[in-house]
Design goal:
heterodimer; B: alpha/beta; Glutaredoxin; Rossmann fold; Ubiquitin-like (UB roll); 5 domains; globular
Chain lengths: 124, 599
């Protein structure tokens, strides 16, 4: 170890792998429905896509996590995005390609991808 | 890259309740379900709630699973990690009645809420066998700061201002110790930095947990101290009975060398520092500083008179500082966050936090770290979950064989070095044993005296012979053969030994007697005058009786008596032969009709 910069480089690399264990709760959370229904409908590639994209860009403030069945199995795979201070957004019928778009438009640029939301007439 | 981390406790408590097999089983199950690349399994240090082990924590949601067995692993993998459904039957519940409502994340439990983790901050969070994870938690940043931005005087100044005092028990100001070691001898010769990891108090295991859970913190702190006092060599004196701690220290030292954080020219500053391990054979006296250094030198571990103090002439007759593991664990944090941050916690004369090992008659057996000034009531009732089985709190023993008992009347005294000494106990290394109404205080004093008699090194007469005589008097009292004069003689002897013993072991050995005599003299007198043990512990003063009106003559007691001293015909009241009875209590435990009592 020759310099503080060297130490910092290691720290940043490791921190991106460890930030899951931080519970401070100010982070954005991407929650993928991973119950039997979700998995059967193809939630796993969606989850993996999000993990890959978030990790790839070193976005320590975004957590990708999973949840159980929300009860709307016909819409699976379902992805919810919780951002601090904003109402949560639910995307339905996701796949890996759509996940990439949501990542780019919503998570990176703050624009909700309206065409993947639950259609208004069905929302009730 | 991982989306979830499964942290399995690898502290001694959880290892002995089977956590290594759980880790293997997780790896196997995850591979079977194809989750190997999505979920990381990490072995951590102690979480503190040892009574609930083996402990498994799943992040990011911080679900806290308690008492997990190998058979539960497939369910956790299948339900929680694959489908995202928490396995509620395994989730830690603070109260049995909590039901499903009791599902708790780690930081919501009362056990953790009142704690402030400084020395234990990484325990249970990082993998202690990974230097990278330590660096990820700002590890070695303090060392970098010290070596590139601060002078040795600056470092000592920060530690002095923080108010950090030795966590091994005596509470000597750490900064003061360093300052003396730097300034008193400046002849350019070698100096040494030592770590006291010879944790010997029965019931204390905080140092072990720090070494097992965060070994790099100790290495970093010792290197900082080496720079501050001008030493290039450190020694960690750790007991061989701590195999996991020794193993992880070895790994940590190797990793630090590999990363250039130990060795030559650290951070390109021109400063060299190396650390070696020395294993102790488990003699209690080797926790005393002069005996510890004598032992590192390869001689028989015996203390020597002070002065000269180690800051002038310690290891190999050179200036040496010795700090306890927990003290070391605080140092990097103080350098990083500043003296004011540390001094902002605690009471006027005792700053920061203290780790206690909770044991005895308490619900949450384990390790807790609290700010100085927290009351005993908060520790026992709120964090420790109170005394089990609805029994009444009687006293807490702190400081192990060197400490004393704190009775219920001092339940609300804020815990710090000076307050504990004022009420006749001491901080000690932080063992805190809770006793309820079923504990006999004379018996407790006898237990600790038996320990010091065994552990006395024999070098000085007051300790070698004095502790033995005190033990004999206590033994006499518990057998109902004591007199009131014995109590006076005991007290006189206690003060004499306190004043005349060579080292800390002997000087503090009478404390358990003096404090129980001070607060529980009535119990001593009951043993001597009434020949009764109020807590019904001392066997010689007990007798078991079968009440003829309640006995149905089922013969169960007679069949379970190991010495066959119970006689009687079937369906007729039985009788115990008091002459032969060894007071084992087997008859009482087996009686279905509550017909047997002990007096």
């Amino acid at each position: 170890m020759k310099s503080l910069e060297e130490l910092k480089a290691i720290r940043e690399k490791v921190q991106s792998q460890m930030n899951l264990r931080d519970e401070s709760g100010t982070d954005t959370r991407v929650v993928v429905g991973m119950a039997t229904c979700g998995i059967a409908a193809g939630a796993r590639p969606v989850l993996n896509k999000f993990v890959e994209l978030v990790q790839g860009r070193n976005l320590t403030e975004i957590q990708v996590t999973q949840t159980g069945c929300i009860g709307m199995c016909r819409y699976e795979p379902i992805v919810e995005i919780h951002e601090p201070g904003k109402p949560s957004v639910t995307y339905i019928h996701m796949d890996a390609e759509k996940a990439e778009k949501v990542f780019n438009d919503h998570l990176l640029h703050g624009n909700v991808v309206t065409e993947y939301l639950i259609p208004a007439k069905m929302q009730a | 890259m991982y989306r979830a981390h499964v942290l399995v406790c690898g502290g001694t408590g959880c290892v002995s309740s089977g956590s290594p097999k759980i880790i293997d089983s997780f790896k196997e199950e995850l591979a079977k379900k194809g989750l190997k690349d999505e979920v990381a399994v990490v072995q951590t240090g102690c979480h503190g709630l040892c009574a609930m082990g083996p402990i498994v924590v799943v992040y990011p949601d911080a679900t806290f699973y308690a008492k997990v067995s190998v058979d539960d692993v497939p369910e956790i993998v299948d339900e929680h990690l694959l489908k995202g459904r928490i396995v509620s039957r395994l989730v830690y519940r603070e109260n049995e009645s909590d039901g499903d409502e009791g599902v708790k994340s780690l930081n919501d439990t009362d056990f953790y809420k009142k704690q402030t983790r400084v020395a234990l901050r990484n325990c249970g969070v990082i993998n202690p066998e990974s230097i990278e994870e330590y660096i990820g938690m700002n590890g070695y940043e303090a060392l970098g700061k010290v070596l590139t931005e601060m002078t040795p005087e600056d470092v000592i100044d920060v530690i002095l201002k923080s108010g950090l005092r030795g966590r091994g028990g005596a509470g000597f100001p750490t900064g003061q110790k360093w300052k003396l070691a730097r300034e008193l001898v400046q002849d350019g010769g070698p100096k040494y930095v030592c770590c006291n990891a010879d944790e010997g108090d029965p019931g204390a295991f905080m140092d072990r947990s720090v070494l097992e859970g965060d070994p790099h913190a100790v290495l970093e702190a010792m290197t900082i101290a080496g720079y501050a006092i001008g030493a290039n060599q450190g020694y960690i004196y750790v007991r061989a009975e701590y195999p996991i701690a020794v193993e992880r220290l070895k790994i940590a030292i190797d990793q630090a060398k590999e990363y250039g954080l130990l060795g030559k020219n650290i951070f390109d500053s021109g400063f060299d520092f190396d650390i070696a391990l020395r294993l102790g054979a488990g003699a209690f006296v080797c926790g005393e500083e002069t005996a510890l250094m004598t032992s590192i030198e390869g001689k028989r571990g015996e203390p020597r008179p002070r002065p000269p103090f180690p800051a002038v002439s310690g290891l190999f007759n050179r200036p040496t500082i010795l700090n306890n593991v927990e003290t070391w664990a605080n140092v990097p944090q103080i350098i990083l966050k500043g003296a004011d941050w540390f001094a902002g916690m605690g009471t006027e004369k005792s700053k920061g936090t203290k780790v206690f090992a909770l044991g005895g008659k308490i619900n949450n057996t384990g390790l807790v770290e609290i700010p100085m000034g927290t009351t005993l009531r908060e520790v026992v009732e709120d964090i420790g979950g109170g005394v089990p089985n609805g029994k009444k709190f009687k006293a807490a023993q702190t400081g192990g064989p060197s400490g004393g008992c704190i009775p219920a009347e001092h339940f609300d005294v804020p815990i710090d070095y000076d307050n504990l000494i004022a009420i006749g106990s001491m901080m000690g290394s932080g063992g805190l044993i809770v006793m309820d109404e079923d504990n006999c205080m004379v018996d407790i004093a006898k237990f600790f005296l038996e320990f010091t008699v065994d552990e006395s090194c024999g070098k000085c007469t007051p300790c070698r012979i004095g502790t033995r005589r005190m033990y004999e008097i206590l033994d006499k009292i518990t057998k109902g053969q004591g007199t009131l004069e014995d109590l006076d003689r005991l007290e006189e002897l206690a003060y004499y030994i306190k004043d005349n013993a060579l080292c800390g072991l002997g000087q503090t050995a009478p404390n358990p007697i003096l404090s129980t005599l001070r607060y529980f003299r009535d119990e001593y007198e009951a043993h001597v005058v009434d020949k009764k043990c109020p807590a019904k512990v001392c066997k010689s003063l007990l007798s078991y009786t079968i009440h003829a009106d309640l006995c149905r003559g089922c013969t169960l007691c007679a069949r379970n008596c190991p010495v066959r001293c119970i006689e009687g015909e079937v369906q007729k009241p039985h009788v115990i032969d008091q002459e032969k009875c060894i007071k084992c209590g087997a008859c009482m435990a087996n009686c279905k009709f509550d017909a047997i009592t002990k007096e």
